[in-house]
Amino acid sequence: MEIIENGYVRIKNGKIESIGPMDGLRIENASGKVEDLSGMLVMPGFVNTHTHVPMTLLRGYADDLPLHRWLTEYIFPAEVRSMTPEHVRIAARLAFVEMIKSGTTCFNDMYFFEDVIAEEAKAAGIRGVMNESLIDFPTVSFKSVEEGLARSERLIRDWEGDALIHPSVTVHAPYTCSKDTLLKAKRLADKESVLLQIHVAETRKEVEDIKARTGMPPAEYLYSIGLLDSNVIAAHCVWLNEKEAELLAKTGTSVGHCPKSNLKLASGIADTDAYMKAGITVGIGTDGAASNNTLDMVEEMRFAALLPKVVHYDPEAVNAAMALRMATIDGAKALGLGDIIGSLEVGKRADLIAVNMNASNIQPVYNEYSAVVYAMNSKNIRSSMVNGEWVMYNRQILHIDKEQTIENLKNITLKNNE
Question: What is the pTM of this model?
């Protein structure tokens, strides 16, 4: 959290080789390219800890509905009709355009046809954590849990050791997955030493249903079967009670907080201030574009800072610096990537963004954290780098044809409406 005035970052082979103030640095004989980012704030890129990338295809499709009706009556049927591998490919490209333009350099995804999403993420140059969303009924990409597990293992094998793609294991939720499915997913994650991600306690209905079935609320139930662990990130966690928060902290389970999606679906407001005070690592996620309806981490970070103040009637709850940590270093830690991304430090990967601090909506700057969290918008982000390579430069996306992607998506949505 140190601010270096008039600083430099030296990058070699995708990593930060050195960082510090310009005073005394000689660059006239430097090999490689020198970028002058005067007037910019160079900071870590945002880490989106929970999303469903191809749901850009369903943006605005079924708005203003409660989650369980929205999911079972609209989204699940639409996915069966619409989500082919090629449609997933096009929708993923659009998602990456939006993510990159709003400063996201790493995302954590759960969906179907994740092999396609991995290919598109690699081509776009964005860092991704991902795998098939295991669930106890047939989906567009697998017909059984065993087939889903096989797809998950194959993705892990195919991308093992890749610089950008970090395979995980994904299981949808305790209300859509049996104990057997949950444990199979956990065993696979442990065997492969990868992240396990799951939705937990998103709505009151979920809590009531699982209590009726197991006698325990969701997080307590997951703890009782051994699923909560330091390699687990639980998305949403809106309705954790005090005991459950203690269990997450005790086990090292992280939270992927999705404030805007939780508001739009009227799921509630997660008490992240209390979670962090309990010792839980909390990152920020956008959720999918069907329930948000944006993938803009700048907006999400602002909501993450503002909502706890209202929950506790305390303007000091989750201050700007804390919100920025949630969107960067704490998000990286939640995904098990805190040793390689999330901050600008020697030896870490060069995942960073350049923000125009001379923009009229930001000036004057009395405090950089306040400027970024409360005043900045995504258009102030001028350039974005992942693993030492520009993926956006001066607002131009470098590895995706944005116009063609939008046209392709329009053709898909027209067909769906026929």
Answer: 0.96
